[in-house]
Design goal:
By secondary structure, the protein is mainly alpha-helical. The protein has one domain. About 65% of the residues lie in helices and about 5% in strands. A two-stranded antiparallel ribbon has the order 1-2. The longest helix has 22 residues. It is elongated and about 55 Å long.
């Protein structure tokens, strides 16, 4: 191992701060995929999507608090979907940003 024992490393290579962020993002992305991609996870995500009004209007004209609650529930489901779809590869992200 190179460096001090507090630094994360892979195969005796000390990781830079950016590499650690990418590695953590990749792991989290894979965790979301593992959780919600199998048949049980898809059923749960479908149920959350219905509860979160993802494909419906969240606005409730007579109640600000109902609207806020619906938007909060919706944002959780959208976050899960975003985490499953995220691009964590630095090179692909740079190319996407340049386009």
């Amino acid at each position: 191992m190179i460096g001090n024992s507090d630094q994360p490393y892979i195969d005796d290579k000390v990781l830079s701060e950016e590499d650690r962020r990418v590695s953590a993002a990749e792991q989290l992305h894979m965790d979301y995929l593992a959780t919600f991609s199998d048949p049980r996870g898809k059923r749960v995500l479908d149920d959350l999507s219905k509860f979160g009004l993802v494909d419906q209007d969240c606005f409730c004209p007579d109640s600000f608090s109902r609207t806020a609650f619906a938007l909060g529930a919706r944002s959780v489901v959208l976050h899960i979907r975003d985490m499953m779809d995220m691009v964590v590869d630095k090179d692909r992200q740079q190319k996407t940003d340049q386009e």
